[in-house]
Amino acid sequence: MPQFNDTELTAAVIESFEKTPDPRVKFLMQELVKSLHDYVRKTDLTFDEWGYAIDFLTRTGQKCTASRQEFILLSDVLGVSMLVDAVNHREREGATETTVLGPFYVGEHKVLPHGTDVSPHNVTGERMFVQSRVTDLKGKPLAGVPVDIWHADDDGHYDSQKPDYEVTGPSSRARFITDADGRFFFRTILPCSYPIPTDGPVGEMIRQVRRHEMRPAHVHFLVAAPGYEPLVTHVFIEGDEYLDSDVVFGVKDELVAKIEKRTDALMPDGKPAPAPWHLMSYEFRMKPGKGTAPKPMLAVAEDA
Question: Which of 105, 194, 228, 242 is catalytic?
Answer without folding.
Answer: 194
